[in-house]
Task: structure prediction
Amino acid sequence: MKQILRWAPVLLTMALGFTVQQDDEVALQRRAQKLHDRIISIDSHTDTALELIRDSVDLDKVQASFPRLREGRVDCCFYPIFVDQGPLDEPSREKAYTYAREKMEGIRAYIQARPREARIALTADDIVKNKKRHRLSLVMGLENAYPVGKDLSRVQEFYDLGTRIITLCHNYDNDVCDASRYPKNTWGGLSPFGKELVREMNRLGIIVDCSHASTATLYDCLELSTAPVICSHSCVFAIKDHPRNLTDDEIRAIAAKGGVIQVTTGRWALSWLPRAEVNVGTFCDHVEYIRNLVGVEYVGIGTDFDGGGGMSGLEDASKMKDITVELLRRGWTDHELELFWGGNLLRVFRAVENAAER
Result:
């Protein structure tokens, strides 16, 4: 009996501590919920579009489906059409162009058939208006400019279909530029045609996305573009030295131009640790690194869901709000979170639109 009494204060303290911890967690969840009611949350990169328009689609396996985006309190998601890199000959370019047009028309039809759930966003203001109307915004684009081939008029065609962002390349050099993953240094950065492409994107109001691009390509874009450029799904090289990640100098250069780095969620970009050990905290380490290096105004999120994104605790878009909880736990303010989740990317989107008007 004496032994039980001796341990009673310790057990009571532990129980009270656990209760306080539970209360704190509930408070963070409530604060995150209220924050997401007010702010605009944007995911700048997924490969979900191609998943949704398959002949047979199992929505339970789609990481960034409409229901999961709504559950995770995501207001806007970028749905680019991914095109793998093929040979640089005319028949292959034509095949890629036909494929991209067909898939883009397919996802347009998919979205337009569900007007009560989602709308295609063509401007930054569309995203804001759709939030007020409780509609999900989808921004269309191309991941890899390969379908443009060497025909600049196709940029206008894709713009007219709804394209508002183009990732210049994928893992290999193309007609536009050199890539970061398996570069052959074909052009030493942007090709002569690539420079024309960037000018045309500026003219129309299409965001220049340098994720996947080589360092030389990135610096060429920063020098040439009349609008800020972004990396829609990249991480920090200083934390994980992967060729797709950005060095401190690259991060500083993007920020100096007014752009934004959208941190991605795949283990391949986040850490060398075993998959089970890579979690929301790991992701937030990259986010905070960029904030501490150049400021909170230059960081956001591009998950790469349905294309290699996701990790322990963030298996799909339904859990996106948990990132807010973790950053609140680390002391982030509501204003910082508003910038991270969408304010920064909306600023860039508007800057791209303004550059086109000029």
